[in-house]
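Hey,

Quick one before I head out. I ran the complex with thiamine diphosphate overnight. Inputs first:
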Amino acid sequence: MKTQAANKKEMTDKTLRITGSEAIVRSLMAEGVDILYGYPGGAIMPVYDELFKFQDQIHHVLTRHEQGAAHAAQGYARISGKVGVAMATSGPGATNLITGIADAQIDSTPLVCITGQVFSHLLGSDAFQETDIVGISTPVTKWNCQVTKAEDIPAAIAKAFYIARSGRPGPVLVDITKDAQVTEFDFNYKKCEGVRSYNPIPKTSQDAVNAAAALINNAKKPMIVWGQGVILGEAEAELKEVIEKAGIPAAWTILGASALSTSHPLNIGMVGMHGNYAPNKLTNECDVLIAIGMRFDDRVTGRLDAYAKQAKIIHFDIDPAEIDKNVKTDVAVLGNSKESLAMLVEALNENSHESWLQEFKDLYAIEFDKVIKGDLHPTKEGLTMGEVLKQINIETEGNAAIVSDVGQHQMIACRYADFNVTKSNITSGGLGTMGFALPAAIGAKMAAPEREVVAIIGDGGYQMNIQELGTIFQQKAAVKIVVLNNEFLGMVRQWQQLFFDKRYASTEMTNPNFVAIAEGYYIKARKVTKREELAEAVKEMIQSKESYFLEVCVEKEDNVFPMIPSGASVSDVRLS
Amino acid sequence: MNEDIKSFTISIYTENNIGLLNRISAIFQRRHINIESLTTSQSEIDGVNRFVIVVNMTETNANKIVKQIEKQVETIRAYYHTEEETIFTESCMFKIKSDLLFNEPQIQNIIKDSNTTIVTVNKEFFVLEKSGRRNEIESLRRDLNAFGIMQFVRSGRIAVTKEEMKITELLTEFNNQ
Ligand SMILES: Cc1ncc(C[n+]2csc(CCOP(=O)(O)OP(=O)(O)O)c2C)c(N)n1
């Protein structure tokens, strides 16, 4: 067997006469792919045959559902910053990827999805397992294409990787017909270095940076809200410099979490529907709002015509289409966050805003009193989701990657998890995809085996991709799984309680024996119903070298606060 | 802040790509914006396509949509222009029974006065073609309708802008990046 390096050399030295399917595998390896997630079927079988031959160089992970493959690839990409790869057969295999692709599109996650397609002479004839996956995936991909000739495979894959990872990242899909997979041709791989019509990183204008700095230098009450653009641009250090040099209180969106340590004195918490009280309220008090790599999602802004109207708005983004999309900016700074923030640091004056920062602290004290105390130090009998997070923080010392699903537990996880390491909050932000966490945690753990990966999932979302326990078992992926069981689709129930007069339509869940199910997959499992058992159980879980399932039965009808009711202004954030 | 809805001509220079039409029309569809007309053809540069799309919307939305179109990998550049900033035309064809041409002398006057071209005449029917502004085409259609039209078809708008497009320069700039 050849080593990967020897193979790479062989590829660049001479052209090889190989089949399209071998070319697919060699192209992936040339892009540095060592793990991919997928599920075989008729139209992709020739590629699986090649994956079998190359299994010592490229590891294919058989998930239990193609949706799981897409989310696992996302988890892999989110924790590593590398491109995640998912593979599926035509028809139902391909359509099963779609939710993950849509999730990656809205959360700017670099993915390359490869789907098999029927023979090209059958295209358009309603052949067995034929779907127009290029048509179906168009609105949810950054780019996609269909390849019908073997000789077009290397260039299509090279372009796919280039587009997925460059500029604002996103998912791409390459659909490859079976005849292209089985035809032989002279293979030669060349990495893509540019696409004529595509300008991934707009140039940062020094004038724009200066204009932004002038506003910030004169501001009395500046506030930063950063998003995932900081993480995607690997600009964590530059962000920290900006914050510290100008002494600006800084808040984050869900996807921005972990770019700056949660313990940093200028980190004032999360914005948005279930964000912290102070940054939400004071959004409407600041005089300059500096948005960095975030897109003013409606879950962040609440009612737009009552959002930061008093403030000058500065928007740093790599994507020109985000400028003025939702919030009209006074100064737009285009470009890669790493470069634009480095330029900003240079132009900023050293400063501090102690009395302004104190306003955040004062509001935090109110939030602590009304919400946080009860969440983290409950005196009532039932367990809270918050105290589970607190125990996880203690046991992992804030160094774990937290992979959360969607619902109340997600908001609690994002609010209360300690983050000392970047790329550690892996959650479905823009799409809010229940079922995301379990497979995403597998991808994250496999990409970063040295890290502790803890999945926090609701009893509802857990059952959306529960089959992936099989993948965890087969791969021996040491994922820690925490199901916060409230026997409800909690977040929906909360809305029903608050806005639908407690009519709990189809939100109550009669659940199975989760411990038995995990044990059925030979995963160590434990259930906690009492506070006295919690700390010890979390400790046992974190200390386990293998995967571990922990079910915590929490209070059934707890609500997540603060909350900005939908359609309300950030100023109207509620504490109860 | 109720902004006026106006007619905009969106011009898009693109790489020749099968899926792009889908991507572009989806951007309008998501926002429930009706496409009044859409024409695609070769542009002044070999291998570069040009879309001309006419839509009614606010300028704020036109601006957002153009940026979302431009974001597509295979879009080279997209612009929007008001009617005043473009020179535009549409064309149309009529198929009419031949005997009318001889029995209704009025028709010959209409054809002459409106600068309409006779494309072909045979025993059964004749075909007219005219380019011009929408109102000219509409008034011609009304006039001919009185006599009976076998078939009528009108193309989408094609337009050139008064302002320079500089696509060649842009492409060299991209190439040199
Ligand atoms: C695929 C999908 N379907 C439906 C929803 C709507 N939804 C949002 S939160 C939620 C409840 C989640 O319940 P659970 O997983 O038990 O978590 P909890 O809120 O109780 O913590 C639902 C149904 C969704 N986000 N995703």
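Chain A has three domains: 4-187, 206-360, 381-553.

Talk tomorrow,
K.
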